[in-house]
Specification:
With 205 residues, the chain is of the alpha/beta class. The protein contains eight helices and six strands; from the N terminus they run E-H-E-H-E-H-E-H-E-H-E-H-H-H. The chain has one domain: Rossmann fold (3-Layer(aba) Sandwich), CATH 3.40.50. It has a six-stranded parallel β-sheet. Interacts with CDKN2A.
């Protein structure tokens, strides 16, 4: 197999990991499009399990902000508690134990806080970061928009959930494709992205 060119942003199941960041009860009524964001992250989790992509889950100060919401479907995952506005310190040992890791798929909240700082820490480690834009949000849509732009400026890839899922499965002949097809049969729910991207938005030039 030819070597993967790092600038292309290709993702493969054997060298990727899914990060699920802080989708907790106390954020339910404060984060814009929270149900839609969790729904898309749940799709990513289902596909990760089908393709045996490792999944890492964090919770920000769970004593005060509550547990991960049940609709994410994260049963069986052990959430790692944190107070840092990045997932990386809490997951340092997991990352160090995966020398084959090249790509991190990043979902969760908030875009301008833990998602942004996690992306920067991962990029600093030389990893490719794929921000699942329809699975990330903030309380403020301005913060969300500028955080996505900031991550793109720093070298992260902005991708939709379906785009990444189809990259991971790679081929309709894949033995898990029919199960994955069930996951993506209906389009991902609208999470307000068209309002952020439409027109000649100068932030994304």
């Amino acid at each position: 197999m030819a070597a993967i060119r790092p600038g292309l942003g290709r993702v493969l199941p054997g060298s990727s990991v899914l990060f699920l960041c802080d989708m907790q009860e106390k954020f339910r009524h404060n984060i814009a499009y929270f149900p839609e964001i969790v729904s898309v992250a749940a799709r990513m989790l289902k596909v990760a399990r089908l393709l045996e992509v490792p999944v890492m889950l964090t919770e920000q100060y769970p004593k005060g902000l509550g547990p991960t919401v049940p609709e994410l479907g994260a049963e069986g995952l052990q959430p790692l508690p944190k107070t840092c506005f990045s997932m990386v310190p809490a997951l340092q040992q997991e990352l160090d134990a995966r020398p084959q890791l090249r790509s991190v798929l990043l979902c969760g909240i908030e875009a301008q806080a833990c998602i942004l700082n996690t992306a920067l820490d991962l990029l600093d480690r030389g990893l490719q970061v794929h921000v699942v834009v329809d699975a990330c949000s903030s309380r403020s849509q301005v913060d969300r928009l500028v955080a996505l732009s900031r991550m793109r400026q720093s070298g992260a890839f902005l991708s939709t959930s379906e785009g990444l899922i189809l990259q991971l499965v790679g081929d309709a002949a894949h033995p898990q494709f029919k199960e994955i097809q069930k996951v993506i049969k209906d389009p991902a729910p609208d999470s307000g992205l068209l309002g952020l991207f439409q027109g000649q938005n100068p932030i994304f030039r």
